[in-house]
Here is the input.
Amino acid sequence: MSATILPMEDPADALIGAQNELVLTSVLREYERKYFFDVPEIDVLEVTDRGQGSACFVPSENRILIHPSVASYEKICRVLILHELIHSKLYKQYNDPDAEEGLRFQAEVKRLWNQGAYGRLL
Here is the structure.
């Protein structure tokens, strides 16, 4: 990856937030091409505090939200993006994002693990 995630000294710093959003969007696109090529793309990845937890997939907006407090931690964000892409895939295939992270979700984690998606992240 050519860009670097910058630390957020002030979560309201729009310039750093925008830079992190660009880098994380490039990670998202990389993972979509590599591991989720058979699923319609996410429209937007947004660094914002309007979601739930550190990250969430918003089905009605086809959007992934990453909380600013974690946006400068690349490895954490990579795991979060994979996690939310699983929810997106399950929603798009079964109209159910599997918020409880049951058998379908676990099968996707295993698929990603076997394909090396978590290499050097965990």
Remarks:
- The helical segments are 14-35, 74-94, 103-114.
- The chain is about 45% helix and 10% strand.
